[in-house]
Design brief:
The chain has helices at 14-20, 56-61, 63-76, and strands at residues 5-9, 25-29, 39-42, 48-55, 79-85. The chain is an alpha/beta fold. Strand 3 and strand 4 (48-55) form a beta hairpin. 14% of the residues are buried. The model has no long low-confidence stretch (mean pLDDT 91).
Length: 96
């Protein structure tokens, strides 16, 4: 994997690719099927870094599944970041 390319999983939103492509070389690949998170690149030390993007309701609705997924992805590379999309606000009915 070349160092100047950001890899994006095939199922990530097209809008993310459009936005990032203004300043980065982007390539869509099946990252999740390869055991990596949603976004991946090689850092200055040629190590694989990756970012898993989750929406708040995905985390709150299935914490164990998210934890299991992150554990699997950590085995592919210890340089893993969890990017949480959205904000959880308390609601009177217990929802978000």
């Amino acid at each position: 994997m070349p160092t100047d390319i950001l890899l994006i999983d095939e199922y990530e939103p097209d809008e993310v690719e459009t936005l990032l492509a203004h300043s980065l070389n982007i390539s869509r690949v099946p990252l999740n099927r390869s055991g990596l998170a949603d976004y991946s690149w090689r850092n200055y030390a040629n190590r694989v870094e990756h970012v898993e993007r989750k929406q708040v309701h995905e985390i709150l609705g299935g914490f164990e599944e998210v934890e299991y997924q992150l554990t699997r992805e950590l085995s592919a590379s210890p340089y893993l970041t969890l990017l949480i999309e959205g904000v959880a606000l308390p609601a009177a009915d217990g929802g978000i």
